[in-house]
């Protein structure tokens, strides 16, 4: 209950503070790539139940094109600074997500998790999480899922506070913002499985 109150209060305050920035980003995206500015996608939340996650759009063109061809210099900057994540605060406000928790991944992965890895869905997904402050995209998928389950088993108010405080320098310094080659991070073959159903697009 305390976590939900904190999530609602902090996300509401952040949305008010960052509303001018969000309006500016939305305008920049529309001028750079056209309408819409917000990207919506189904992601699994608590107990694997699907919800609609909101982010700023950072890709143009068709989903059948290679991701690298769909990014613009502006959208790459928005991604690098994690500003594309600001609309997820609406998900926290709605109760779909928490400020801290395992990052919501693609629903296509659900059937690929081991029973232990699937335990990451025993809590709400987060805007940031333990894996994000421990290495972000530099970590192989197996380690990310391991950290997600570790968070589920050890989550406390103080751990959440620590993760939130560590997220600030991680975002400002763009630690792990650039993902290494998939042969390094995709040690579970998750992206390869996704390729067969999405035409080669990464999550």
Q: Layout of SSEs?
A:
Layout: H1 2-33, E1 38-44, E2 50-56, H2 67-70, H3 73-80, H4 88-94, E3 98-100, E4 126-128, H5 130-133, H6 141-154, H7 157-172, H8 182-185, H9 190-198
Parallel strand pairs: 3-4
Antiparallel strand pairs: 1-2
Helix pairs in contact: 1-4
Describe it for me?
Helix content is 48%, strand content 10%. The protein contains 9 helices and 4 strands. The strands form 2 sheets. Strands 1-2 form a two-stranded antiparallel ribbon. The two termini are 31 Å apart. The model is unreliable at 196-203 (pLDDT under 50).
Note poorly predicted spans: 196-203
Number of helices: 9
Strand/helix succession: HEEHHHEEHHHHH
Profile the largest sheet.
2 strands, antiparallel
Q: Main sheet: which strands, in order across?
A: 1-2
Structural class category: mainly alpha
Cα Rg? 16 Å
The total tally of domains equals 1
Task: Tell me the strand percentage band.
Answer: 5-15%
